């Protein structure tokens, strides 16, 4: 589904204020203080590079029992389960779930359609602030953050690392690359699936305007690679409600096509079509066991992130 839009862009802050770079360009100290108390958990098994708080496919020494395996040459006798030996007269050793840090990759859509904003904040502004918040939470919890910045192709890739310096550099690159080009979400998600070899958490931040069937196949590719996937569907309130009262001209920000319409006359049909569009994406994600949330660009970022992460924490138990 492709919806024509009229462009309006106003960046946060006063024009006279010097532009802040990196984390400080997206989050103020009060927001960082609140977000620093939150945590982003994986709902599935992940693979990391250091000890952490997330389940790993690797077996090792920890406090959580996983399973038994037959005792063999080279196994440490101290792990023999003597109760099983007493019942079966066979030697088995205990194996435990090892824990790992989480590797999070942000998939950030910078196609031209993300440049729309009916109010003070564009979809891309909100998406960048959301990416900064999730990145800050991830690093604060000693997990690793990486980035795929894309429009019709992946424009920039940064591997996952656990460092505030890395996060700061990552967000500087985001600031330097505003929206441009047409969308190619399906193609870029396939690139990401082929690039991230070890199981990780992939967070997709996009308005999902494109070939729906192709996007569904790409999401399935990510899940086939056994990645945990979160979808944040960023939308402007005007796209959802179409609350314009007067005739106006819409412009498709990716193709440049223009269309003059009377929004009040088409409101009912538009809401049905757009509602069906949202429902199809939601059903696709539900079928693939992907977390899906609509992220309205007019809502408070900290409140939205907190509500989602607290819900995810309950579901991860």
Concise structural overview:
The chain has 317 residues and is of the alpha/beta class. Helix content is 36%, strand content 24%.
Which overall shape is indicated by the principal axes computed on the Cα atoms?
elongated
The H/E string reads HEHEEHEEHHEHEHEEHEH
Report the C-alpha radius of gyration, rounded: 23 Å
The CATH class of the largest domain is identified as Alpha Beta
Helix content: 25-40%
Q: What's the arrangement of strands in the largest beta sheet?
A: 5-4-3-6-7-10
How would you characterize the largest beta sheet? 6 strands, mixed
User: Averaging pLDDT over every residue, what do you get?
Assistant: 85
Strand percentage lies at 15-25%
The CATH homologous superfamily of the largest domain is called von Willebrand factor, type A domain
Question: What features would you describe in this structure?
Answer:
- By secondary structure, the chain is an alpha/beta fold.
- The protein folds into 2 domains: 22-46 and 101-316, von Willebrand factor, type A domain (Rossmann fold, 3-Layer(aba) Sandwich), CATH 3.40.50; 55-99, no CATH class.
- Helices cover 36% and strands 24% of the residues.
- It is built from 9 helices and 10 strands.
- Strands 5-4-3-6-7-10 form a 6-stranded mixed β-sheet, with helices on both faces. A two-stranded antiparallel sheet has the order 1-2. It has a two-stranded antiparallel sheet with strand order 8-9.
- The chain is elongated and about 85 Å long.
- The chain starts with 28 loop residues before the first helix and ends with a helix.
- Residues 1-15, 47-56 and 58-63 have low confidence and may be disordered.
